[in-house]
Write a structure and sequence with these properties.
The protein contains nine helices and 14 strands. The protein is of the alpha+beta class. Helix 2 packs across helix 5 and helix 8 packs across helix 9. The termini are far apart.
Length: 332
């Protein structure tokens, strides 16, 4: 049985007009079916994306001792910087990837940084020419795409387009990752079956650019399927907080990444468009068809997202601290 993720041209969302509702209807269908969809017509400059790929390859080709000059331990409470192979856990097992943690660039004088708010602060930009500027340009472009997509998601729920911006994302928490999946055999003694194990994302919306190699797999009602790269597109998926807000009408979908055996290193660029750290996550009132059923026995982590009631930042820290337990102990 062939089961493919939908491809949605969202160009109509970028302009006012009735055509936005047609896009919203496609988003609704995708979110009800499996919570994953591709977007095209998004307006993000292809040359910017290619430049980010090229510079990321240049960074990851550096010796590990050099890359460790920007290790996460130096990022403090901001949780920014480089981690080496096996340095991140999913469901308690090391992922077969290395990466660079980034986010909205905040100066040390920013009030949130002065207040020592976790996951807020300056980035640790590697000393690769043009990398800093390219990362910041990409962050700005895809963050704007996130605002556009959340308007489409609001419309798909028959809510005002500004619903999420007014309550959660006028100042969203943006977490950005640049991952490199080397193509090589797993070292002896390491139990690493996947590049990244089965998981759901924590927040509202993930916007992913993947290079030409691919490797993403999604758990749909028809079983596990591949989500291969489509040139010029982003892959989007909804996270736990949108599942919580919609009472399970839009479910956060488990996904994983296959080990890379292509013969070439693979790059992946997920941007997490999340509620503000201080936002109190609430269920959307009066949403038809949302039963907020406890599905913890079916979830990968046995958690009931509908039981959560509090700051988004608390939910995020609980999850992220399991990914980097040593850093949690040292920093938090």
């Amino acid at each position: 049985m062939t089961y493919e993720l939908p491809i949605i041209d969202i160009s109509a969302l970028l302009e006012p007009g009735d055509a936005r509702q047609a896009v919203a209807a496609q988003i609704r269908q995708a979110c009800r079916a499996h919570g994953f969809f591709y977007v095209t017509g998004h307006g993000v400059d292809a040359a910017l994306v290619q430049r980010l790929e090229d510079l990321s390859h240049r960074f990851f080709e550096l010796p590990e001792d050099t890359k460790m000059q920007w290790r996460m331990a130096l990022g403090g409470r901001a949780w920014r910087g480089f981690f080496p192979l096996g340095g991140e856990l999913t469901s308690g097992r090391p992922d077969w990837k290395e990466g660079l943690y980034l986010g909205t660039e905040l100066a040390v004088t920013h009030p949130l940084v002065q207040a020592k708010t976790p996951v807020h602060g300056p980035n640790l930009f590697p000393d690769v020419p043009d990398f800093r500027e390219t990362i910041l340009d990409y962050l700005a472009a895809v963050t704007q795409l996130g605002h556009t997509l959340m308007e489409g998601i609001a419309l798909s729920l028959d809510l005002p387009a500004s619903y999420f911006a007014e309550r959660y994302t006028s100042d969203p928490l943006i977490l950005f990752r640049i991952f490199n999946y080397p193509t090589q055999a797993v070292p002896q003694g390491m139990d690493v079956q996947w590049g990244v194990g089965e998981h759901t994302d924590y927040g509202l919306l993930t916007i992913l650019h993947q290079d030409h190699i691919g490797g993403l797999a999604v758990h749909t009602p028809a079983g596990w399927i591949d989500a291969p790269p489509i040139k010029g597109s982003f892959v989007c998926n909804i996270g736990d907080m949108l599942d919580r807000m919609t009472g399970g009408l839009y479910k956060s979908t488990p996904h994983r990444v296959k080990r890379n055996t292509s013969g070439h290193d693979r790059l992946s660029f997920p941007l997490f468009f999340d509620p503000n750290f201080e936002a109190r996550v609430q269920r959307i009132e009066g949403l038809a068809g949302a039963d907020a059923r406890d599905d913890s026995t079916e979830r990968w982590d046995r958690a009931n997202v509908h039981a959560f009631n509090g700051r988004y930042g608390d939910y995020l820290l609980d999850k992220v601290s399991k990914v980097f337990p040593q850093l949690r102990d040292e920093v938090l």
